[in-house]
Amino acid sequence: MARSWLLLFGPIIALPVSLVDCAHRSREAASPLPVVRPFADAGVAKLRDVDLNFNGLSSLFWDARSSKLWAITDDTGDPGRGSASLPRLYRLRLKWRPPLGLEIINEATFPIQNKDGVPYAMGELDPEAMLPTPWGGWLVSSESIPGGRRRGLVVSNGSTEGAKLLLLDAQMRVTALGKLPKDFKAAPKGQPPRGLNPKNGWESLVPAECPGKKGFCFGAITEGPLFQEADQFPDRSRWTQFRLWPDGALETLRENFYEADPHPTPQVLGFRPSRFDRGVSDVLAVGDGSFLVMERGFYMDSESPGHKANVIRLFRARLPARPGAAVTKLLWANITELEPWLRRQSELYRKAETPIDNLEGLAFIPADPATGRPPLLLLMSDNNFNPSENTHILFLTHPKFPQNEFAPERGANR
């Protein structure tokens, strides 16, 4: 891409160079990493588990209580993929090797089970995000897989199709299905589709404050627009805060909208795209009332079959005080610009047409003084069970999230 890093960071360019750790300055001249950036250094984690290296990871969550990283897999619905396609959770352990080595080790694998304790088969579930609940289990959002095999799982609108919210216990068994509000249900048979797109459901879940401190509150963000908004608002994701009860009952607390950035021009991509797929791929709370949002775009070359590009950008975001308003956002980093650096990391990335691939997961890992591990931001790619794509976890050290970066909202304190 012709644009410089200096133009891509927006407000971040005002950060003094002294924020970049002095220990890494000696590598600046030899590294394609930009000098001005909202993190100190970068690396690629080593994944220690044969199955984990291949399986299609779709989300990450850092559990501060146990100091463990959790990952969840989606599902191709392809019986030819064998057991590697079964939806499951992984409990992972991190091992830091100074100065810049990270190993991620699979400690345990947990297949997701239906209410009868039977693991979901291929084509029955497509998990995209997860959050621990106060009841000792997990909340999981799933897209549907049109044409996949099913056991007849029925969601609240009486259909086996559509996106789902599932409550799991500590054994990863489904205890309840989220009772979806009207706006998110599929239309009755024979009527025009509405609500959540089956292949474009809640891509990310984030914790939220609960009014009255009762129930479990969370934010759910769609990858793209609802069916009824797709033509008028093709770049809009819906950001909804819910209150959830153990029986699956959902109460809508507030809704806002997130507008994705415009498509890159053919001049930026280097070709004229014939097909594209884009939207919000993950959202991460960063601890000061703001969020980090990952926008992902996939583009195919109209003139060269097989030639493609992935555009990954991270934005700082803040929910507005007024429900129904658009989410405020500022560009934090254009991750696609790391490709020159990534190609130097291994033969795998040198041969890959798009080293920055289908990024779907974010996690913030705090510093560990005992091992010397600095604070890390993890970015995980999903290989979609496709040998031509890759599964990797990038990490950025000392990510910077300046306070008071957003201008005060007009009228917010009146």
Main attributes?
single chain; 414 residues; mainly beta; Tachylectin-2, Chain A; five-stranded mixed sheet; four-stranded antiparallel sheet; 37% strand; globular
Written description of the protein model:
This protein has a single domain, classed as Tachylectin-2, Chain A. The strands form five sheets. A five-stranded mixed β-sheet has the order 2-6-5-4-3. 6% of the residues lie in helices and 37% in strands. The protein is mainly beta and 414 residues long. The relative contact order is 0.15. The chain has helices spanning 5-8, 50-54, 266-269, 339-343, 347-351; strands at 41-44, 46-48, 57-63, 68-73, 88-97, 101-111, 126-132, 138-143, 164-168, 174-177, 202-207, 216-222, 236-244, 250-259, 273-285, 291-301, 308-318, 328-334, 359-365, 376-381, 393-397.
CATH architecture: 5 Propeller
Radius of gyration: 21 Å
> How many beta-strand segments?
21
Task: Please identify the top-level CATH class.
Answer: Mainly Beta
Structural class: mainly beta
Low-confidence stretches: 1-30, 146-160
Count of structural domains: 1
DSSP strand content: 35-45%
